[in-house]
Amino acid sequence: MYQRKSPWLLWMIMLGIILFIPQLSIAKEQTQQWEIVNPSGVIETKYFKPAPRLTSLEGKTIVLRWNEKHNGDLFLNRIAELLQEKVPSAKVIKLYEIDKSTIKISGSANESARIAEVIKGLKADIVIASQAD
Amino acid sequence: MVDQSEVEKRGIPTVTMASNQFLSLAKSTVKSTGIPEMAFVEFEHPLGMIPIEEVRAKADKAFPEIVRMATQWKPTTAAAAAAKPPYPAERIKFKGTYASLNKMFYEKGWSLGLPILPPTTEAVEAMLKGTKHKPGEVVWVVPPRQGQLTVELVATLGAMAGCKPEHMPLLLTIVKVLKDPDFDWRGNSTTTAPTAPLLVINGPVVKELGIAYSTGALGGQMPVNIALGYFINLVGDIVGGSVPPDSDKSTLGSREDLVAIVVAENESKNPWKQSYAVEHGFKATDSVVTGFGAYMGTNNTDHNSVKGKDLLNTFAVGLAGASCGITSCFTRQDMPSTWQNGVKFALLLIGPEHADTMYRDFPNKLDVQKYLVKKAVLPYSGYSPGQCIVPKDFGPYDENTMFPRFTQPEQINIVVTGGSGKQSQIWIPFLTDARPVSVVMEQ
What is the spatial distance between Cα B275 and Cα B312, in angstroms, rounded to a whole number? Predict the structure, then answer.
């Protein structure tokens, strides 16, 4: 009888060890109090009013601006046709045909300002622009 | 969109067409310029790469809305919210584990999804000891979100990336490179292309800080390079807000969006002796950071060329074809970036063994550049329609006629880096990047 009980006891001890060892190996991460710095940065607040709006396109100078993204010029060409058909008193200027230096994604604040000055020089009443993509 | 914003600021109203996939980026860009609202007409994406009949149909459909927005739309926002000071940054108390802190950071948009080191007040204060700059100094307003990056936040994001206090002067120099208008950060960080910063470091700082320049320099196990590269993308995503899908429109993205490439030149293995920085007018004692926004690079794995010319011939193939579809022929470094003068320079990271092979036949680096300019050619059909404008006096040509990508040797930038092996890399800039931007580190 003694000889038959001994393996049983050994198996129980080994089972206990097997179950206990993983608990030891997974160290529980400690909860702690952190004081951290918010890394997001405050958004720069500037405020510019949008330009005064028009109530009609009749007799206005409408500048069409293309940023060189594919097919944007074709889109604006069709808009020009529709404007001439529906609002014949309007003067439609395709900026991309009269000043090729403006056909671009400006890429810098200085260049954006330059393009805006070109448009201002045309005495535009409104700009219709094609963006992307 | 910045262009239309500038027009509005001059008192001229605008109406902008934007596809539904890009409307959110267009609106956030406008907001970042200080104008809270502008008139948009949305159409179904895409507009590019579709037949003209479909373009005209989209214009027909959009036209009534264009007229309505031009004559009836009115902004609703009355005034700007009161400005908060950028310094000091908010301190937050958080109780939890390291894992839960990382989860909180990710959920707030304060990480890229990779683990960060917690920017505790102690860690940030320690970082700030590495610079004489005042912590409240705003060093960059980062597009597209227009977050104000203070010196304190450089320290904070540096700590999160694993940088050390002694890295602070270099981090501030890196910021100067990124914010340079010629880098076009806004374009790089919001484009559909998988662009990411690539920075090369020259000078004494390389050895002082242990910046990697030999075997595997662009890979893992390079803690300083990785920390610096991680810092860059933390700045871009957290302070700059260039996060997919609304602001970072990268179609597929790239792993460089996680950890930007930062590598030093292996100056002692440069057979031409002059480092990249010295070649570009800096002193050997200057620590210089040079960077640009790069499309994904390509590799040259030439094991067989014994002659320099043979090796350069295989380089020329990769150079001509890299970033295919957006490149132009006859590009010039001294002309503005446009779609007809697109992707107008390249950076070759040349392994020392490849450099030695080139040097045998080209002891003058300028001759390497000239040879590559001559040999980097594509057939006319290899350029996307409309992007290769052939000079009027060129004579007859057809789709098989070969046209050069470059025209000036200074368009080919050469840096010797890496360890043993027959490997080099070719990196190409984003369409609008004007030039590689170099800045000397403050002592």
Answer: 20
Question: pLDDT digit string (tens) for B125-157?
Answer: 999 999 999 999 999 999 999 999 999 999 999
Instruction: Give B 119-178 residues with CB within 8 A of chain A.
Output: 119-121, 124, 141-142, 145-150, 152-153, 156-157, 160
* Model confidence at B92: pLDDT above 70: yes
Q: Which chain A residues are within 8 Å of B142, Cβ to Cβ?
A: 41
For residue B70, the chain A residue with the least C-alpha distance is A54
Task: Quote the minimal CA–CA distance from A127 to chain B in Å.
Answer: 5
Dist CA A69 CA B47 (whole Å) = 9
Average pLDDT of the segment spanning B274-292: 97
The closest of A96, A103, A118 to B337, measured between CA atoms, is A103
- Asked if A56's CB is within 8 angstroms of B147's CB, the reply is no
User: C-alpha B14: how far from its chain's center?
Assistant: 30
- Asked if B1 reaches chain A (Cβ–Cβ under 8 Å), the answer is yes
CA R_g for chain A? 36
Query: In terms of Cα–Cα distance, which of B89, B193, B101, B82 is closest to B147?
Result: B89
Average pLDDT over residues B351-356: 98
Instruction: Determine, for residues A108 and B181 on separate chains, whether the beta-carbon distance falls below 8 Å.
Output: yes
Please calculate the CA angle A78-B60-A126 and round it to the nearest 5 degrees. 60
Q: Is B385 on the interface with A (CB under 8 A)?
A: no
Residues of chain B numbered 291-330 and touching chain A (CB < 8 Å): none
Q: What's the pLDDT tens digit per position in A97-113?
A: 999 888 887 667 788 89
Closest CB from A75, A79, A129 relative to B14:
A129
Summarize pLDDT for A110-128 with one digit per residue, the tens.
888 999 999 999 999 999 9
CA A6 to CA B141: how far, in whole Å? Answer: 76
H-helix segments, B180-267: 185-190, 205-209, 223-234
